Amino acid sequence: MASAGEAEISGVPGAGVSAVCAGQVGHAGSPDAGEGAVSTREGQAGAGRGEADARRLAWVYLSRVVEGPCAALSALIESVGVCEAARAVREHELPDALRGPTAARRGSDSAAADLACITAMGGRVITPDDDEWPSWRMLALSQLDAERDRDAAVPLVLWARGTLSLQQASERAVAVVGSRCSTGYGNQVAGEMSADLASRGWTIVSGAAFGIDAAAHRAALAVGGPTVAVLACGIDRPYPAQHERLLAAIAETGLVLSEYPPGVGAQKHRFLARNRLIATLGDGVVVVEAGLRSGARNTVKWARRLGRPAMAVPGPVTSAASVGCHRMLRESETVLVTRAEDVIDEVGPLRMPGGDPMRPDAADQLRGAEADVYAALPAIGSRLPRALADQTGLDLATVRAVLPGLELRGLVGCDSEGWFRVTSRAAT
């Protein structure tokens, strides 16, 4: 039986989170009557909506509880599902690793209020269940070792304001970052490079800070290109405050993002965690001007760990604003770039390390969700992710995360009809 805690999280009167997530919402109707069949279908549709609502509330509740990346909570969700994880957090049935991170806010459920707040400001919350969740981008982040860095975790949700689809905006994207105390040279280079990339259809991702970040965003906006600002605070709190109009302009045609719920203020550790998302959402990271202790170097660190190209623009050897760039270039942490063409050459098209393609028997080495998804693909024809989720019993977010990995292994491909086995398609 569902507990009271589950009912509170679900937001569905009379139904606990576990029941709603399982689609176990009762409905009336007699199997012998036509109206009974209609009622059954309506009940099933209502159960589906109830399950989706319960899952969304559970995601939002957990996002508020930890306020930022939490690898242990992500692991729990992966293991038992988001609704059961929310119940466990509320009832304090947790492993030791999660007791501390959840203690302060687990008893306060503001999920419904948070959703109302974000809706009122014209925003939305993006969860791993949503079509625009960038599963492909998050795949590399999910495979990092959280013991090496506590921020090495996929965000639970992303709070968003703007017209762009996150999945579409991140399909071809470059992160441009650099010094807050930029020079005229840095602003010019960042602006010209960002404008050139944006005019060619590349999304410019940055952090909306003073200096290089702002120059990159403004350049993309000036040419009518897409740009995404990733904040280290709630999206209801423009940061810096002087960039309120810039962030509003970005939201009109692009996207303002944060993993932090409404009302959360900017703090130093949140900027460092935010940098991993900037690196994750781009095909590569470009640094234009960085001092010796610049935070841009932290973004480069994340890019390298994620396997993304890291690039730096050189500056005058006499400029303190470029000391960090020169050091990263000298120590081979970054590749030298001076124009948009250099950046495109590094980040696209996607180039994999050399080596022989996987042998046809590589499918025999698959395990877990990868094996289940591959086995569900037909020998002939294609399947959409939702159909694969229904067939395998896996959640849709997992299926979407697994498919790109299988594609990189050379086992599957996709076209307008869906995903297919490469060997079977080649044979036809």
Can you put this structure into words, describing what you see?
- By secondary structure, the chain is of the alpha/beta class.
- The chain has helices at 4-10, 17-21, 34-66, 71-80, 82-90, 96-103, 111-120, 135-142, 166-169, 184-199, 212-222, 244-253, 268-281, 296-306, 323-330, 340-347, 368-376, 385-392, 396-408, 422-427; strands at residues 123-126, 158-162, 173-178, 203-206, 227-230, 255-258, 285-288, 310-313, 335-336, 412-415, 418-421.
- A hairpin with a 2-residue loop joins strand 10 and strand 11 (418-421).
- Helix 4 (71-80) crosses helix 5 (82-90) and helix 17 (368-376) packs across helix 19.
- Residues 1-33, 350-360 and 424-428 have low confidence and may be disordered.
- Belongs to the DprA/Smf family.
- InterPro entries: DprA (IPR003488), DrpA_SLOG (IPR057666).
- It holds the Pfam family DNA_processg_A.
Number of strands: 11
Strand % is 5-15%
Number of contiguous helices: 20
Shape: globular
| Parts with pLDDT < 50 across at least 5 consecutive residues | 1-33, 350-360, 424-428
For the largest beta-sheet, the strand count, sense and barrel status come to:
9 strands, mixed
| Overall radius of gyration | 23 Å
Helix share bin: 40-55%
How far is it from the N-terminal to the C-terminal residue, by CA? 51 Å
Mean pLDDT: 84
Lateral arrangement of strands in the main beta sheet: 1-2-6-5-4-3-7-8-9
Structural class: alpha/beta
